[in-house]
Write a structure and sequence with these properties.
Elements lengths: L27 H12 L10 H22 L11 H18 L3 H23 L4 H27 L19
Helix pairs in contact: 2-3, 2-5, 3-4, 4-5
Length: 176
């Protein structure tokens, strides 16, 4: 039977009768969210969460690897990678530098790249022809998913820059 078909007792904590007039009912999930937000401590100047440091190192290693492979003329399926490979390398390098400096935009952008990479390898897993391909895809999906999850909490600690107010107002102090 559904919840609506049962009568609630007045002493039931979830019943409408137990809420005093003028009080709003807060859900347990909202209370847990508020507790989690209160427990977060903003980063000190120069501080960098461990997950962001790992992500910056991963992005820098991937950018450096792409650059070296492009420079030595590596071919992919018989074709030379075009300007897209250099553009991707540049984006990874910018993300690495930005994450090293604990920038919100860099972490957010790297998470977007991680999400695309995880989805791509999940699709490639469907076409895996041998055990090595399956293991590689599972490793990228697992490690990428773990890093993505760890970056979510780190982003909560990195304060998003505030927008500048309209004309004529004093700009707020921004973290550098």
């Amino acid at each position: 039977m559904g919840r609506r078909s049962r009568k609630r007792r007045p002493d039931d904590p979830g019943s409408v009768a137990s809420v005093a007039p003028g009080e709003s009912r807060r859900s347990r999930s909202r209370e847990r969210d508020a507790e989690a937000r209160a427990a977060l401590v903003p980063l000190e100047p120069g501080e960098r969460p461990g997950a962001v440091t790992v992500a910056a190192c991963v992005a820098a290693a991937l950018a450096l690897t792409n650059l070296v492979l492009y420079a030595i003329g590596t071919k992919i399926q018989g074709k030379s990678p075009g300007a897209g490979a250099l553009l991707f390398t540049l984006v990874l390098g910018a993300a690495a530098v930005g994450m090293w400096r604990s920038r919100y935009w860099a972490v957010l952008g790297f998470q977007a790249l991680l999400a695309i990479l995880i989805l791509l390898f999940a699709l490639l897993l469907l076409r895996a022809a041998n055990v090595e391909a399956v293991l590689l895809a599972l490793a990228v999906i697992g490690l990428g998913g773990w890093l993505f999850w760890k970056l979510v909490r780190a982003m909560a600690r990195i304060q998003m820059p505030r927008r500048l107010p309209g004309p004529g107002a004093d700009p707020p102090k921004q973290q550098s």
